[in-house]
From TrEMBL:
Belongs to the binding-protein-dependent transport system permease family. InterPro entries: MetI-like, MetI-like_sf. The chain crosses the membrane at residues 7-28, 71-93, 102-123, 135-156, 235-256. CDD domains: TM_PBP2. This is Carbohydrate ABC transporter permease. It comes from Enterococcus larvae. It is a multi-pass membrane protein. It is found in: Cell membrane. It comes from the Bacteria. Pfam families: BPD_transp_1. Keywords: Cell membrane, Membrane, Transmembrane, Transmembrane helix, Transport. PROSITE patterns: ABC_TM1 (PS50928). The keyword Membrane applies.
Length: 270
């Protein structure tokens, strides 16, 4: 039994190294010159080391503007998606009405469609509404998440009906129950969806690339392609910009990791 545990821990260590080493290499390479990065016989630690890549990031494109654009869009989409998913999940979990299972099946079916299938219809809708080159084209199509609704529906179903009925007997409305009972008891689900949704919004490239043409409104995921020139790629600048751009994702995970791990543990236990 002890031998199995040792091999299991070694296997986990191997997976951790496979996951972390590329990020470590990228971070160290962000302090190297392009000549050092492309050297075949180059080592892990750059020689010489330089901060010039970080200094030059803003000169390549409006990095800070795109960074804060991405931060605003990702936070807005995440907050709206969490609230809408919790509200719809509450309805599917605790309300009985005709066609409920059919509607929930339709929600689940949206998770089975490849995202690329919906690009053309969504783009035509944005064009018809006159929303191209605006933040509405980024936020509104992402306001509702089938995955989020599914998560909250499963989580809220575990909450006792007797507790909600007791609240109704005391005069609480459904909106009061939702805000004061359901949401506080769904902290783990909120944390999990916050991590996933923020990551998906932050790293989304194709949709912002299609609907946003104004550089002042563009996101950092699209802005990073500015380092790819006609005759070469500024790897040092690209690695420096990418290292900065992953900071918000790390911060979001640190904020919600306790609830996220607790939710995973609870789900595995059930």
């Amino acid at each position: 039994m002890k031998t199995k545990k040792i091999f299991f821990n070694l296997f986990l260590l191997f997976l951790a190294l496979v996951t972390v080493v590329p990020f470590v290499w990228m971070l160290l390479s962000s302090f190297a010159t392009n000549q050092e990065i492309v050297r075949v016989d180059g080592g892990l630690f750059p020689t010489p080391s330089t901060f010039q890549n970080y200094v030059d990031v803003q000169e390549k494109f409006n990095f800070m503007r795109m960074f804060f654009n991405s931060l605003f869009i990702s936070v807005a989409i995440t907050a709206i998606t969490i609230y809408s998913s919790a509200l719809v999940g509450f309805v599917f979990a605790k309300f009985r009405f005709k066609g409920r299972n059919l509607l929930f099946g339709v929600v689940l079916s949206t998770m089975m469609l490849p995202w690329a299938v919906t690009i053309i219809p969504k783009y035509e809708m944005m064009m018809d509404f006159g929303w191209l080159d605006s933040y509405k084209a980024l936020i509104i199509p992402a306001m509702v998440s089938g995955f989020g609704i599914f998560m909250f529906r499963q989580s809220i179903s575990q909450i006792s009906d007797e507790m909600l009925e007791a609240a109704r007997v005391d005069g609480a409305s459904d909106f009061f129950i939702f805000h004061k009972i359901i949401l506080p008891m769904s902290r783990n689900t909120i944390a999990s969806l916050a991590i996933f949704q923020f990551l998906w919004s932050w790293e989304d490239f194709l949709w912002p690339f299609l609907v946003i043409n104004d550089e002042k409104k563009q996101l950092i995921s699209v802005g990073l392609r500015m380092f790819n020139g006609q005759y070469g790629t500024d790897y040092g600048g690209l690695f420096a910009a990418t290292s900065i751009s992953i900071i918000p994702v790390i911060i979001v995970y640190i904020i919600f990791q306790k609830q996220f791990i607790a939710g995973v543990a609870t789900g595995s236990g059930k």
